[in-house]
Amino acid sequence: MKIALILLLILAFGTGFMLWRAARNEAETARLYPPDGKIVKANGHDVHVKIMGNGPPIVLLHGASGNLRDMTWRIAPALAENFTVIAMDRPGFGYTPPLGRDGATLAQQAEVLRAALNALGYRKAYVMGQSYGGSVALRWALDYPDSVAGLLLVSAPSNVWPTGLGTLYRINANPITGPLLRLWVAAFPPRGLVRASLASVYEPQPVPAGYGDHLGIGLVLMRSTQRENALQVAALKEQVRAMVPRYGEIDLPVEAVHGTADTVVPSHIHTEKLAQQIRGINVTFLQGVGHMPHNTNTDKVVAAALRLLKRGSLK
Q1: Domain-embedded: residue 213
Q2: What sign does the CA torsion over 251, 84, 292, 225 have?
Q3: pTM score over 0.90
Q4: How many whole angstroms separate alpha carbon 25 and alpha carbon 88?
Q5: How, if at all, do strands 57-61 and 125-130 pair?
Q6: Residue 12: per-residue pLDDT
């Protein structure tokens, strides 16, 4: 009995210490990386947006485990020479709160982000999505085609893939193990794991110097963000499966950019198939390029955006 009591006290102390450290780390992250855009109201929800440049509007949607800072690293400043760039934190990331407790669906995200665009005074815009953000962009075009002047898909999941969730995602999405993992990560940020994760996303290209600091790794490691990210990724495959039969409905200019060495979202499973599913899509395959061409081959993505500008209905 005495041993059990001691173990219980140790567990309580350890949990309390981790809760304290996690809260301290999250407060420090908020101090170091405050919102650098503005908050707009969209259907009653807050959406954090960063706007730069002049010209026709283009919305930028980041991928999983990210935030709008991924977009403002290289691609947004480059596009701002020809567009009004509107980078958005997707629901549950950065400074856009989650839409609920179950993980926002592609449809829910498209709805609230379109509402944010309207709240900014734009009825229609080009929409660029990278990785998971590309799936949101596809759903946006399917559900609200009149608000999309053209799509720019970068390394976008668009078709059903054969593999399941990775180990960490399975643990994180589980209602029992997830909270424990998220607390540990927030309290004791695993720097080695973070470096390895960034390297795997960028490979075979190196992670650009300064990228992690610009992104704000602490924002990604927030407990609420970890949870939302895991739930969204866990539900993605079935939501993509539901979209595939509808791709023939898309009747607007579409440009797709995908690296042939992408191991996160393999081009042969996704964009090669999408090229046969959307009429008039123009695809650019980048030989030997990984998952992050908007940051490693920015000029190629900008070129695709300029082609979209010529093909689209906004000048």
Answers
A1: yes
A2: negative
A3: yes
A4: 24
A5: parallel
A6: 60
